[in-house]
Amino acid sequence: MRSLRSRLRLILATGAVVGAVVLCVPAVLGFSGVIGWTEAVTLTLLGLLCAAVGALGASVLLLSRRMGALSRSVTTAMDAHSRRIAETLGQDRLENVRVLEGVHERFVHLQEHTLPRMNREIRNAVTVQGRNDYEQQVAWTELREHLDTATFMPPLRGWAASPDVLRVLVRHIDRLRPELVVECGSGASSVWIGYALRRAGGGRLVAFEHDARYAELSRELVAAHGLDDVVEVRHAPLVETASTTVTVDGQRLSTADRWYDTSAFADLEGVGLVFVDGPPKATGLQARYPAVPVLLPRCTEDVVIVLDDAARDDERGLGDRWLDEYPELHRVEEAAEKGAHVFSRKGA
Predict the structure, then answer these.
(1) What GO molecular-function term can you cite, just one (predicted)?
(2) Are 103 and 180 found together in one domain?
(3) What's the structural domain count of the chain?
(4) Pick from 32, 55, 150, 208: most CB atoms within 10 A?
């Protein structure tokens, strides 16, 4: 645009010069008498008109050329922009194709590998759960028939002990006829153990519970089954105890620093069976470990210690510690839903 304005100024200047010349010539001829003043004025006007027409024509020609150049520039820019758009669209299309190929590959992997694996895992889980449910139903039925319990018994499994581990306990009660059974924890299992001791013809159970409210509920449950003379539920709050450091998966970790108040165990002697089902896991790492150090000196030579939830790594780890620190013990792993490890003295 700046170049166009410069050229227009040049044309106007040239037209002005030509116009001046045109005006001068007729005037000079008129003054010299060669032509009359009427002819001089007419020639002057014709000259001015021709100059204006010439200037206008030159301007139109220049503008036409400039418009042509502008059109070519716009066309070139449009072509470049179109190419950029086409390239961008092509890249987007290529990226979309790659994304779709990736989605297809994942779909194929999902269809050929993930789904069949998940299907196998679900079938296995359902099979295992079905087998566990069947085994617990069998154990429940056997316990009911063997112990001749009340019609309505407290439910098992979940937070409570499972029927299969109680079956292990009842089997040892029938064999050992212990005078004293100790349970770390209380609840439904306390009632079932009470029935087993009554059937065995003697012995009593002392169950230790860290939660005062739950201890009261356990007492009420025991009383509802008329087992007050067989089962005693003691409140033993968790208090500070010595902690140690153990290696778990290559890491040095501190064990739980709370356990039952040992003063509640002071009068116990001649313990023939110990059921370790507490404190709860949330207490800390290997929270159930102190059961053997505290109770083993108060036990009979043929004592049996049953550790519940032994399928968990935490319980297996503390069981390993028991064996390392008390070499007179040996361990038998019972098939149970949550895992059950039975410890006894060698040769007993």
Answers:
(1) methyltransferase activity
(2) no
(3) 2
(4) 208
Q: Indicate the residue type of 325.
A: E
**pLDDT tens by residue, 164-196:** 999 999 999 999 999 999 999 999 999 999 999
Take residue 64 and report the two structure tokens written for it: 């036409």
Longest CA–CA separation in the chain, Å: 166
The residue range of the domain holding 93 is 1-147
**E strand or H helix that includes residue 299:** strand 299-308
In which residue are the tokens 């669209």 written?
A: 89
CA distance 27 to 41: 8
232 with 102, same domain: the answer is no
Tokens of 95: 């990226």
Cα(5)–Cα(2) distance, integer angstroms: 5
Q: In what order do the strands lie in the sheet with 204-209?
A: 231-235, 204-209, 180-184, 271-276, 299-308, 340-345, 329-334
| Residue 285 near residue 248, CB atoms below 8 Å | yes
If asked whether residues 230 and 249 sit together in one domain, one would say yes
- Residue 155 three-state SS: coil
Tokens of 18: 């030509």
Joined tokens for residue 222: 């025991």
**234 near 206, Cβ under 8 Å?**
yes
Predicted TM-score (pTM) above 0.85: no
CA distances (Å), 330 to each of 274, 291, 317, in order? Answer: 15, 16, 15
User: What span, in angstroms and rounded, lies between the C-alpha atoms of 238 and 241?
Assistant: 9
pLDDT tens-place string over residues 88-113: 656 766 676 677 677 667 766 666 76
Residues with Cβ within 8 Å of residue 112, at least 6 apart in sequence: none
Q: How far apart, in whole angstroms, are the C-alpha atoms of residue 217 and residue 42?
A: 132
d(CA 156, CA 190): 11
